[in-house]
Amino acid sequence: MISVELARALSAAGVLWEPAPGDRFVIDAELLTGDVFWVSDLTVEVHHYKGQSLLGFNGTTEWALDSVTLDQALWLPREDQLRELVGSRLTSVRRTDDGWEVWFEPEPEAEASVTDADLECAYAKAVLAL
User: Fold this and answer.
1) Which pLDDT does position 5 carry in this prediction?
2) Is 70 inside any structural domain?
3) Number of structural domains the chain divides into
4) Which domain of life is it from (predicted)?
């Protein structure tokens, strides 16, 4: 899973999130970033109210949260979502002794790589490099 710091960097870089079932997120508040939530039709649902997306917490969750706006939530994209963000610029992924190398084309006819012990973090770094 990508770190909260990388998730913040993706958000700051303009990566947009359209919440869907299966998505992971944290509430970006000091005491809550350690708790990961999943959007699900059973416990956390996306609602639209007055033109704004809200994450609604139904009564089966541990806390008595009602809802939070998307700007209070920090998306933790999965490997497949990060790979989709890199898109056709992805050239290869290699396992190394130290973790993972993600190779991509930042511009035509050029190749670059990023590495991380965690594959999702390596993909996130590639997205940020693009």
Assistant:
1) 95
2) no
3) 1
4) Bacteria
